[in-house]
Structures are given as structure tokens and as C-alpha cells.
Specification:
The complex is a heterodimer of chains A (909) and B (114).
Chain A (H helix, E strand, L loop, with lengths): L1 H12 L4 H22 L4 H12 L2 H11 L1 H25 L1 H31 L10 E6 L10 E2 H9 L6 E13 L4 E9 L3 H5 L3 E4 L14 E4 L1 H7 L10 E4 L2 E9 L16 E4 H7 L16 E8 L6 H18 L16 E5 H5 L5 H42 L4 H34 L1 E6 L2 E5 L5 H28 L11 H38 L9 E7 L7 H16 L6 E5 L11 E5 L12 E8 L3 H5 L3 E4 L13 E5 H8 L8 E7 L6 E12 L14 E6 L7 E7 L8 H11 L5 E7 H5 L1 H38 L1 H9 L4 H34 L11 H27 L3 H5 L3
Parallel strand pairs in A: 4-9, 6-8, 17-22, 19-21
Antiparallel strand pairs in A: 1-10, 1-11, 2-10, 3-4, 3-7, 3-10, 5-8, 6-9, 7-8, 12-13, 14-23, 14-24, 15-23, 16-17, 16-20, 18-21, 19-22, 20-21
Chain B lengths: L11 H11 L3 E2 H12 L10 H10 L3 E7 L5 E7 L1 H25 L7
Antiparallel strand pairs in B: 1-3, 2-3
Helix pairs in contact in B: 1-2, 1-4
Classes of the chains: A alpha+beta (909), B alpha+beta (114).
Amino acid sequence: MRHYLRPFVRRLLGRPGLDADLQIEAATHQAHRADDLVRQGLSYAEAARRARLEFGSLHHYRAQVRSDHPFWSIGIWSEQTLKDARMACRRLRATPVFTLFAATSLAIGVGATTAVYSAVDSLQHLASLRVRDPDTLVFLSTGASRNFRQWTLSHLDFAELQRAPASMAGLAGSVVLSRTVSDATVAKVAIGEAVTGAYFPTLGGSTVIGRAIQPADDRADGPAVIVLGERFWRQTLGGDPAVVGRVLRVSGHPFEVIGVASASFEGLTGRPATPSEFWIPLAVDDTAGSGPPPSSLGNQDRNRREIIAIGRLTASTSIASVSTALATVGSGLDRATPLPTPDGARVPPTRGWSATSAAVVARGGEPEIVTSVVKGLVALVLLIASANIANLMLSRGATRENEFAVRCALGASRSRLIRELLIEYAMIAALSAVGAYVVARILFVVLAVDLPVARWLIVRLDPQMNLAALAVSATALVTSLLVFGVGPAWQLTRSAGTAARARSASTAVWGSRRRSIAWQVAISTGLILIAGFFVRVTINGRGHPSGLDIDRLAVGVVDFKTDGWTEARARPVIDAIVKTAAGQPGIEAASLSSGLPLGLDFTPRASVATPERPFVDSRSGIEAWLITATSDIFRTIGVPIVHGRAFDARDVAGTTPVAVVSEVTARQIFGETDPIGRQVLLRNRINMMDRTTVSQLTIIGVAQDTDTDVVHPNRSNGTVYLPLAQHYEPTLAFVTRTAGDPADLVEPMRRVVQMAAPDVAMLPRAGTASVMLFPQYELLRMATGLTGSLAGLAILLSMIGLYGVLSQVVTSRTREMGIRKALGALPRQVRRLIIRDGLRPVMQGTVGGLAFGTVCRFLLRALYPDVAIFDLVGFVIAAGLLTAAALVACHIPARRASRVEANVALKDL
Amino acid sequence: MPPEPAGLVPGTLEVLILKAVSLGELHGYGVLLRIQQMTGGALRIEQGALYPALYRLERQGLVDTEWGTSDNDRRAKFYRLTVAGRKRLREETEDWNRIVAIMAAALTHRLPAE
């Protein structure tokens, strides 16, 4: 083997190969022979001649050596390839514009489509469900929603369903919750589930240590047990092997660890990034929170839907039969216990009982429409890039037809021509691979955003290269490169020596390529309109003044609902946080509040009534957000008091309980009369649970209205502000205000909390108000960025195509231009002719694209009904942008055409 | 006048080369001289044909090569018999002797007298 390889290795190492060896040996041989002959008396010249003759034909022997050595042929081949590569290099350098355009199209095409697809894909993976056999797993719910986390039942309905005749292999319930899990050494806010005994068997969850929660645990007086998630066990408890039997406190209540779930079991949080960290029995859950025991009124509320109900289909049941059975049971329940009369017409009198296969859920959650739209757009851009490469290749093929014809006629074989082309394209592909990598990397940086995916968590969306997408886009583009690059040469070499044939074809080629350009322009226009749609959604929402100084706020969350934090202990810490924060550079004002009027999902709600017209039932009164805050809240969030006063040092525990209400609430309760000094009754749920208290308050001020919803801003709901000094709330938003960039506040805030109370931590979710309160806009920003960059890319690509094709057309029409000029056409007229030619497909495409974009906007309006389908500004921008780009692309070829000298063009007539 | 040199029996050049280098390290021209010496100049060898044969032997691992300087100060490749080459030479010699014996017996064969 060594002997086979040596020549090849030598060649690679740059040492003389067999060819050179043979040459030297032959020379040495002949020299020795000549020496001998000279010694025999011959003249030098004669001796040398004789030695050569006797040696024979070196060429002949070399051929013999080569044929004996298989690797020789590789050497020869590689040498030839190297030569071809050098040749291809020279050719590519000779046509820099073509090389640049081809490589750029490929690089952008592959890089951008891969990056965008990857980003969208990772977005989708943030919210998806991974369970075993999703095809047979069924979610039961009342009311329909796109988000499976809202496919829930009330406790009462769930209990009734459990009693109903079984139509499935099992019926399990789960409530996703967050609790502080702690013991002497650790404390962590964890996401977990309270589940019924059927949960683990139904979902197919197993444990690595100990046992899972069983049907026997379904008793309110059952043991308080906890199953830990594998990741929680490993990361928080250090993978303690003796964990079973250990007692952990869940929101302060002791729970005994009975097992650790297997790593592959994620539970039903629906977020692979944050799988469930613990499971406790649903029957004993209410003892864990500060809520009421299960028999209290709360769980009797049929509108309080929080149980995710799941069942397994058996071999004999189908999703249809389960739906039917559920509808029967459900309507029976609705008849037996009619729902209370709803306020207004917003709640349907009968509920939609539905059964949905988990396979539907597993494919993705909420952002599905946006992501599928963007994915579709990616495919379109890939199409443009392919068409564009095809165009470029056809143009180049056409200009090289003569060259190929001549070379064929001179005896170049087809395989040789094709090989040369392939090498050329391989070099373009290699060049663009580098470019694609750079483009993708840049886009990954641009597309990385912080998305708050849950109340407890901000996930940094960090797109990973999607190899499947990379393979698809690279294959598509390289295929079009090869097919349209090699195709013309193949066609041409089939009938060799048809040099003159080429020219007549170019007019027909222009026709077909004009259509292709029109298509590309249409897609680009559509993309601009779609990007415009997202921009419009963002502007509509963000442009609407929320009533808060969003751009100057940073928000964190401090939770005292943990082990050992009583009101008495928490109060000094709360005061310390506010005081320390006020002294920090950059922080203008700071406050802690039970929520904000918009965007924070833990903000409690309350009902308001008056002593004259008190609450009659659980539904009477006026709904409002309830914000219990430190006295600086109004200054911090920038809500002015329009009447009366804000809280101050007078409003402490023990004095008259006071409240500030927003204008809407004041109007709803008192009409146009002056509310200051009037009494109101306030009924609120304590800590989001259902035990309610009613308190009587004196109104001391009216605050300006704020938005209370984010994507569809409205001010129909009001807000009631209470002084934190008079009412306690353990879960608090820590809000600070700055004159500068609120992003710079997050770290100081963390330090402030740390300084005030080393053993209470600000929750990991913290950030500027625009991220914390408007996660939807982060998604929209991303969608806008994605479609916008795709549109830009599409325009760039189609303009490159337009330029390439027009250049070629101008070249092929040189003679025509010459004749025109000879007949008296002015350069200006020639220029106009070419530009008109180039603009025609652009105009056609723009019209088509406006139609296409309008259809897309129509589809998107299902998501954001506030945005108009027709957007004149968007239309004008799209059309203007494309026309401008087309003018630029046409300009150079047109100028070249106008400079054609009549005598030069007509010379070879 | 010496007799006209005989043409080479096909396939025998390699054996002759192996024999030549078995007596000591040689460069290409040296191999030629050694063969002529061994055969008393009775065989006619195309000088250039030595080289494809030498390269073939090298490829088969029967000879080893090393670049050096020849006695008149020229760059030359020196060939040396490897262990495998020595074994092959022995086998080829035995084969040759057997063939020669068989051929000789066959060619001197006469039909037994009636």
C-alpha cells in the first residue's frame, strides 16, 4: 500500500512525482551510457545521440509506468483539475459583476432563508407540547382557544366529568402553578403542577427514583407528597440520591419527596425550555397556597377554569366519539346548573365543550399563525433566489454560447466543457458558502430577542442553525445553479459548431425572463406589504398612549409569598427597597405595587360598589384592576392625579382606609358627581385565590385613565389604587423610573433588592417595561424585522436579476441600438427605450404583488382585526421603493446602450 | 564475432532485475550493466524498458529505492532487494528451473522405438 500511496503523497507534498523521477533516471542513465561510449572512442555528440537512441522513447515508457500505477491517474486528474480551477478563477475574475451577483444571490439566499427559518422554528419550539403518543391523548375543555394552556375546565366540571361514565382509558387533571420550593438549604420559585392520581399513568410519566403520584393520593386529607422534576432534582438539589423522604416546603407547607420523574417527562407546562419542576397532588394543593380549602366557594365557580383535563383514547374510542360523549355530558351539566346571567353579551350562555387531540397541540402554540406566515415567506424568498440564480445563469450561458460553440468546433469534448463549468460553479458556491455563513451569523445576532414566556421567566430566543433548513435552501439554490448553468452548455454541445445559432434566441429568452422578473417583483411587493402590516400593528398599539411612561420604566418582580415571609417581616424590607432605590444614581422614582394597569399578568382584579348599592351576588359591582402600591406609584409610572390627592405619609395602617380611582371607575360609580370624600365598597380576592373580603374605603383622588389592555388598547376598565401601607400584597412589581435607558436599571434594581434583603431575590424576570409589559410587541418586532429583511432581500435579489437580464439584452441589441443611432436617435431616447423595457415587468409585478400582499394582509387580519387591509401609505411605499430600485438597476445598462457608437455597432454588418 | 544477442523471453526481465539487485544496491544503468555482465551480453535489452519494470517491482514492494549520487556525480535512484523480493527471486528461480527442465525434457523427447 505504501508503494501505491507514495507517488500520490509525494505529489501532495509537492515533491517530484513519478514523472519527474523517471525523467531524472532517464537522464542519469543516458549520461552513464554516453560516458561509456566516449570511453569506447566516440565523440561526445555521437555518444549522446547513441545513448538516446539505445534508451528508446521516454514517452512510451512513461505511458507504461503510468498505466501500471492507478494513483497516477488521480495525480494527472488533480493536476488537470488544478489547471481548470486556475482557468475558472481567471474567468470569474474577468467577469466580476457576474461573480459578485451570483455569489451574493447564493449567499443571501442560503444564509438569510436558513437564519430566518431557524429563528422562527426556535420561536415555535418555545411553546409546544412534548408528550408520549400525542395522537391518543385528548384535551377536554370548555371554550375554545388557540392556546392549549387555556384549554381548561373548572374544578366542578372536572369533578362531574370524573363521575360521568368513562369514555376514555383515563381522565387526569392538572393545574400549572408556581410555588416557592424550599428547605433549610435551598429556596427557588419553581413551576410545577398540582395533579390527580391518574395524571402520571395517563401521560405515561415514569420516575427514576421512588414512585409517582397515585390515585390513592387523591384525598384532601391525604399525605402531602411531592414528585420532583429531574432537572430540578439535579440542578437545585444536586442530584441527592437520598432525596426520597426528604421534606421540602412548598410555599411554606411541608411536603415529603416521594420520587423524581424521569428526565424525558416534561409535564404540561408546554414549554420545553421550562419543564415542570415538581408535581403535588391536586387534592392537597390548596393547603399549599394561601388559598381556601377545596370545599370553599372558589372551586364551585364554574367560570374559574384552571384544570387541564386530559384523557387517553382506547382502541375502541376515537376523538369524534369522545367529543360526542363530552358534548352530551356537558350540555347535561349546563342544563342541571345553568350559568349565572353574564354581564353584557360577552360570555356565551352555553359553553362549547370540546375535545382536542394533543397531536394538534404538539405542533405549536400561540404564535403559530405568525410563524407559518413567516415560514411561507421564507419559502417564497427561496423561490426568488432560485429564479434569480437561474436568470443569471441563463444570461451568462447566452453570452458564452459563442465561446462554447467555437471550442466545440475546435474539438473540446462535452465532458471537458461541463467539467470546466462545474468547477466554475463549485468556486462560486464555495465563495457564497462563506458569505452565507456570515449572513446567517449576523441575522442570528439581530434576531436574538428576550421574550417573556411566562410570569416567571424571560427566555432569550437564541436561534440555532436549523440543519434541515440549511440543507433544503442550499440544495435548492445549488440545483438551480447547476441546472440553469450547465443546461445551456449541454444543449449547445449536443449539436456542436452552431456558433451563429445563438443570437436569434435572445428575444425569446427576454420574454420568459421578463415574466420571471415580474414574479419576483410581485413577491417582493407582497412582502413589503406584509412587513408594513406588522409595522402598522406595532404603530397602532404603541402609538396609542398607554397612559404610563412606558419608555422610562424598568420592572422587576419581588415575591414574598415564600417561606417565612410574613407581612410583619416583609414590610420593613419593602420600605428599605423603596428607600435604597431612591438613593441610587439613575433612578428618579421607585415603587412597589401589586401590579400595573396593563401587561403584568399577576395584577389582581376587584369589584367596586357603593354602600348605597352594595354587592348583591358574586357578579355585581364594577370590575377594576386593583393596584396596591407604595405612595410614589403615581410619580413613578407617570400617571397624574387629576382631582384630589395621591397617597402620602398620612395614609398608614390604622388611619381611615383610602383609595384613588381612575377616571373611568369614578364615572362608572358616581356618574358626573364629585367622587372625592365618597365611600366605596371593594371586594377583592386575596392572592389570586377565591377567598374574598369586602372593605369600605374613602376616595381621596382621581387618577388619569390608562390603557388596561395591550394589543387592543381600551379604557373601558378602570383601576383602583390602594396604599400598600394599609393593605398587604406579597407579590410585588418593583417599578423604577429613569431619565435614561431603562435597560440600565435592571442590574441596580437587583442590587437594591439584594441590599435590602439578602434572602429574598428579585425573580429572574426583569427588564424594561416595553419588554415586560409588551411581550407581544417583541414578537411583532421580530415578525416585522423578519418580513422586512425578507422583503429587502427579495428586492435586492430581483433587482440583481433585472440588472443582469437587462445588461444581457443591451448586449444582444447593440446592433439595433447602433442602427437607431445611425437613423438619428438621441442617446436620451435610447436610454429611455431600455429603461421602459426594464420597468415594464417591474410594473406588472408591482400590480400583482399589491394584490398578493392584500390577500396576505386579509389572512393576517384574523389575528389583528384593528389593522386595515388596504394601506395606501404601504402601497405607495412598496411601489415607490421598487420603482426606484428598478431605475437604479436599469440605469447602467441603459447608459451603456446609449453610448453605443453607430459606426462600431454597424461595423460588422 | 559474438553471436547475435537473443531477444528476451517475456516476463523474464523482472527476474533478471531481481537477480541483479540481489547482488548489491544498484542504480538503473548499473542494473543494465550487471545484467549484461551476468548474461555475458547474450541478451538484447531495450534500455528504457528497464524503468517501467523497476517501477513495477517497486510498487509490488519487491525492491526498495533511495536517491543518491552515482559514481559520476549524478543524481540516481538506487534499488535494493527487499525481503519480499528475495523470496520472490527464490520462487521465480525454482519455477524457471522447473520450466526449463520440463521444456528441455519435452523438447528432447523422442518417441520410443517401435
